[in-house]
Structure formats: C-alpha cells, structure tokens
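Moderator note: this is an archived Q&A kept for reference. The question asked for a predicted structure of one protein chain; the sequence and the answer are reproduced below.
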Amino acid sequence: MATIELSIDLGSKFITIYQNGIGLVLREPAIAIATKSRNRLEIRDAGYRAESVMTGSLGGARVIAPIKEGIIVDEEMATMLLHYFLKKIIPEGIFMPRIKAIVSICESSSGSDRRAVEKCCIKAGIKEVTLVESGLSLLAYTNSIGGLFVDIGGGKTEISAVTNHGIATGCSVNIAGDAFNNAIIDSLYMNYGVKVGEFTIENLKKSALSFYVNDEGSYAVSGGSADGSPRSLYVTAEQMRDAVIPLVDDIIEVIMSVLNQTPPELSAEILRKGIFVSGGSLHIPGLIDYLEQALELPVTPLKDIENAIAIGGARFFDEKNLLSDMLGIKLY
C-alpha cells in the first residue's frame, strides 16, 4: 500500500498542507458553509469557495469556523473540513493510500486540545498522527541550531525560544489578525456609532492598514448604525493604526518576557541572529520595522511567511532523529 506523508498546519484562518516529496498542495481558509440534511450537518462549500459565498446569500446555510485561536472548538466540523480537504489532494483509486501526518499545533495546547486534534485527524482518514509545536517546525524550516520565532497568525501569536533539543521557553497569546480586526471594529463603533462587519474590516485591513506614519489615505466603508439604518464613512490609515498599535505593543511585551526567560546560551544566539517572524499579519506594511525599533533587535521575516510552519514540519519526515530529540520520544 502506498504511503503519503503530509505536514499539516491547522491554523485559525487557514489550513495548510505540504506533501513530502511534492511540495505545497493546499492552503485554504479554515471555514465551511454547512447545511442540515436528515438532522446532520453537511458541507456545501469550504475554503475559498465558502469565503466567496460569504459575500452573497447563504439561504438556510451557516458559516462554521471550527478552529478558534489555534484550538479546535467544533470537532465534528473540523473532522469534516479536514476530510473535505484531504479528498481534494489525495488521488482517487481502488486502494486508499496510507496517510501519515505531522500536525503543527499551538504550544499552549492542553492535553484535551491535543486529543481533539488527534481524534479529528484519525476520523478524517489519517492513519498515523504526530503532533509538533509550531515553534519546532519553524526551527526545522530555518535549518538552524536555535533561535526565537514569532508567528503572528489569525487567531494567535506564538513566541518560541527553540533549540535542537526542543522549546526552551515560549508563550501563546490570543492577539493576532482577528484581534486587530476587532480593535478596528470597536474603534469605529465608539467614534462614529457604526458597526462594520468582520469581512469588510478584514479586506480593509489587508488593503489599507499601515504602520508607516506617512500613509494617510482614507477609505470608504459601509455598516449599520445603532438604529439599524445603513451608513457609510471614511476610515483613515491613521485611525486603524491607532486602534491596532496597543495590541502590537502587548505582543512586544510578551516577546520581551520570553527573551528574559531564555537560557543564556540561546540568548547569545538570538542576539547574534535576531528574531525570526512569520504569519500572514506580517503583510501589514511597516509592522516589521515597528517590531524592530521597539525590540532593538534585527527582525527577519522567513522567506515564506505564510507556509513556513507546514514546510518546516515536512522536513521531520527525513530527520526523524532530530524530531525524536525535540519531542523526547523515539519515532519510527
């Protein structure tokens, strides 16, 4: 029986899958449009197709995001969503290949969180599951002996001081892209009494938010007023920046805390090489420069900031001894 080796990054915003020996085979939004049929939910659309439907009429369907802040919150839908994506990348045939997966998870995942990931993967059709903290996958991506890695994703920011022998110290905080969106939404409501939807704000953030003070554009958005009537307003880059900066400052404070807890030998390595950063939020113009100035350390974005975790995780298939040392268990 053929064996397929997959590295899976189960993110709050995206599910990314890298197939060992082939490359990146899937990166799709971690959402599904589900309808009820015979008292059970069925996926109508998922990933990018579901995202496009969100802008139109859903009818009797509902949008489900089964992963929040890096944790599975809906096991049934997470299983169905992962199975849906696996069917897209696994060739159909008489004999189903044996699927082995390295799944990158949050460092802060509890025992029950880990069991939920394993259960969903197995029910989705994966025969062998190995869970790895995302910081370890990022170290494998860089092929270095150690460093400080900061991944600012959609639901969480992961900060990990890592060596070839595992995670020395680290922390996860629920401050990332979703929190940035909520801060902008709250700011507009407090200042103008207009409630703007998350989908609108997500697009506005991607196109207009900037940490460069000379970015002074204004952008029209529409929402609902307190009495429910539609309203439009102009939002400036400065307004969005002012709403988000306190959250980024909180992330910086956590990074400094992790640095203060890092063993001296690893601290010396970090001072020499700086901090490696990844995650979709790094697309915000000026954010890397802002972090660098505040931390007074070089901040280097990884070459593939969105897919680095999945790519790094796949390297463990060829370096099982390294992963054994990191996890403290024998792998075969």
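Archived answer notes: DSSP finds eleven helices and 18 strands in the chain.
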